[in-house]
Amino acid sequence: MPFDETEDMLQYLFPSPLGWSISNTPSMGLDNMPHPLLNSNRNIADAEGVPADNSSPQALVQLDALIEDATASYKSQIRQKGITCSFFDTCLSLFFSQFYPSFPIIHEPTWAMKNTSPFVLLNMVAIGSLFIGSADAVSQGELLWEVAYVAASTRWHHVYEHSSGELISKCQIVTCAALGQLYAMLSKSARLRQVSQTVHSWPFSWARRLGMFEVEEYRLQDLPDVSDPLQTKLEKWKTWAALECRRRAVHGLFIIDAHLARYSGGFPVGKHVLNPLPLTAVDAIFEARTVDDWITQMRQHWTQQPSFRNVYLSIFGDGPLKMPVDSLFSIFVLLEGLQAVITESNLASGQGVGLPSKKQIQRALIRTRNALQNGLDPGVDTLEIYLRWHALCLDHIIDTSRLQRELCRHRDFPQNIFTSGMDTWKNTDHLRSWTKSTEGRKALLHGIAIQDIAQRLSIGRAYGAGTLAAVLAAGTIYCTFCTVDQHDVAVPRCVNWNLVADWDDDYAHGDNSLQVRECRAFFQGKLLPSGCRRLNLRLSLYQLQTTLRTMSAQWGIAEEMRQVLLHWTSLGLGS
Length: 575
Hints:
One of its GO terms (cellular component) is chromatin. Its main location: nucleus. GO terms for molecular function: DNA-binding transcription factor activity, RNA polymerase II-specific; RNA polymerase II cis-regulatory region sequence-specific DNA binding; zinc ion binding. It is found in: Nucleus. The chain has 575 residues and is mainly alpha-helical. Among the domains are: 1-17 and 66-212, no CATH class; 397-571, no CATH class. It has 24 helices and 2 strands. The termini are far apart.
């Protein structure tokens, strides 16, 4: 257990109230948050013992007094909510066992609480609380997230002056921001989601300011020998892990950036395709549990990784694509980079200086899938990777966040999932013809594939940041078809996704295979051969609601997504 007593825990979280010094940290949008520093009824002009004619010291002492009050207030709330050291211990354990595999920006084997800032620790506990499975635990976690949010906005200077090493300091600042934004972005609370969108650009600003984009490679000649003293080996391992986590923390920002842009209806902050940082280390190295195993894996698998920028050049290029597939985290970073490009293309209506064309994006998606199929180990759990790929293809065909907003507006149903985009449709009359078009039918196939994969995901695991939105996107496509009275559909039994992605009227001319015949009939709106797959999209919408209810046990925003689908189905879609 990290703390023996609850008071020890509080002392760690609030080590020195008067040390909450003001720094030049950018504002984090504190107006959106109710917290004691801003809402205190205390009159700062009444602070005792402060000369009235010395305004600067007076302001600092008065602020220290307010901060001391804030500290006492948060300590009281933590006690009232029953947040104990045992709760901390449980949440940290759940963070590593449930959440960590889906967002590995902290190195568990070398992690130590004594080297972890209170802000990072609070975010870890807040995320771990989501897996306890009770409303009280979620409420407790949200309070701890708020403490981290408020304290971090005013205490960076004090905490990181006292941390153990510059490299760890820089990494933990960005790690705190990444974990905090992810928690808020997927929260059930619209208030927290608004905060994450308000401070969308802040973590990237800090990462640049702290030099986190400066590439620093580990040199293999620094690798210790298995026969070296244990302490020497451990120090070398920790040095490597610090460099690796520094890189992963920034990559985590890119993942969150792509999703926040969609939720906020704006452009991504980071330029994903120009990311100069190398891909992350292969999973076998990062997941080594002992220092000797790490040394062995390094000798077997260590290679100089290409930069993300060069991989994107290859994806959008004409030559053979050799995409590294030995790090699942890097794959998700690459996929979210494609999401950022698609978002920019959708907001620019497919045209803009420096933007790839719709055809180029389509080709990049095909090349990416082929590289994944040819390179991934069959034993690797790839369900979420392919679910994300289908969601990208779906969003490339039609901006599903915009479509969802318009369907809700058309049915006079308020939603707080996606904020207003740059433009809106005057009406949805065009959707009837769209559902009968080749593009509409492609979208339906991708929606069905997303549902098929989502229903196979393990229950109780931490779902990736993009999984929830992908399920809602599939439901949005179903609703669109149901709205124009297309409830019962027949689709090909076996789908060749290269064929679907690159289909046009002249594609595969002369090919009379079963796959091509079924696709051609489906895209042309003709009857499919006997034995095709038949679906009732109304029933499928109910099944997606069940999927989102399961996901909402961890990420509260899934419940709001489920409510949107519930509203659509309750209206009796179509006739």
